[in-house]
Hints:
Blueprint: E1 5-10, H1 11-25, E2 29-33, H2 35-39, H3 43-46, E3 55-58, H4 61-69, E4 76-78, H5 87-93, E5 97-100, H6 103-111, E6 118-124, H7 135-146, E7 151-158, H8 177-182, E8 186-187, H9 191-196, E9 204-207, E10 232-244, E11 249-250, E12 256-257, E13 262-267, E14 284-287, E15 290-295, E16 303-306, E17 318-322, H10 328-334, H11 339-344, E18 352-355
Parallel strand pairs: 1-18, 2-3, 2-9, 3-4, 4-5, 5-6, 6-7, 7-8
Antiparallel strand pairs: 1-10, 10-13, 10-17, 11-12, 13-16, 14-15, 14-17, 15-16
The structure holds pyridoxal-5'-phosphate (PLP).
Amino acid sequence: MPRPxxxxxxxxxxxxxxxxxxxxxxxxxxxxxxxxxxxxHGIKSIWRALSDTDGFAVLDLNEAILLRQEGWKGPxxxxxxxxxxxxLLIIDQYNLATSVHSEWQLAVIENTTLNNPLAxxxxxxxxxxxxxxxxxxxxxxxxxxxxxxxxxxITLMSHFANSDLKTGTQxxxxxxxxxxxxxxxxxxxxxxxxxxxxxxxxxxxxxxIVLYGASPSGKWKDIAHYxxxxxxxxxxxxxxxxxxxxxxxxxxxxxxxxxxxxxxxTVACGYADGYPRHAPTGTPVWCNGLKSTLLGAxxxxxxxxxxxxxxxxxxxxxxxxxxxxxxxxxxxxxxxxIGYELMCAxxxxxxxxYSG
Length: 356
Ligand SMILES: *Cc1c(COP(=O)(O)O)cnc(C)c1O
């Protein structure tokens, strides 16, 4: 028997979450974002559950090629464009849309002979200062690409630094006003903007995290009323039980010391499985239908939970680290991170099964 830990991916919840996103965005089309191997869920197994999308957005050429080999014939967008000049030939061969964000990429496009017309997303730097043309140069870049016969379609693109903020001056709507005067198809909104800024939906949105049932803000309460469902449950089992007395401690560094008699359980899950090592005492854990909490430091292969109130917990009892009963956002928040990081960091050694 393998070690008792596994991740269950709930395929039907992708369909459900995609339909919730559709209801939010009216006529806009959806790029379902599948970078980082589908936020850790496995593109190869989940893409069919999302095939009602209008297109898939990925980062890596290999992810795009995989989708083509799997039989997806619809649009695919490379979110960060191409990394080397040779990549453009593969983009041409597999009929991919690509973003362009830098001058060097324009030169590559000008100097490469293509078999098919190219669909481009021209990226504006609207305040992130990671990728994109500045507001000063943007319009001339668009005009320059419009003048090339090898370009079949141009879409204006930007990415928000603060779409998870619901109000306030940091929401950079004014920077994208520049797009309105260009009268071209436009794609700006990520999950946060899709939920909370309907004036940014335009022609296409790019949603990742909400399809995976977690919150763009990192806080479950911000999405609780949308009825999104978890797509990943990380579960394991109790492998040992101890009774400890006041004054006794738990785990490396003796970070937790009991002040009353306690019943505690050792669970087969640790940071080498992708559980956050920074999760402190008090981080929520779901044990056999009851909320429990983490105690002491997370080890590489194990963690300890409080089962003083879980009378029926025994060796082999099922423990959910996050998922259908326990929002990944709540575990992430307790650990000082966001659901995105936890799902992407699921370790290779954790066996994945797909349900639905
Ligand atoms: C990852 C990414 C998205 C999706 O972001 P979510 O917050 O997961 O919706 C959208 N656009 C770009 C450019 C991205 O890199």
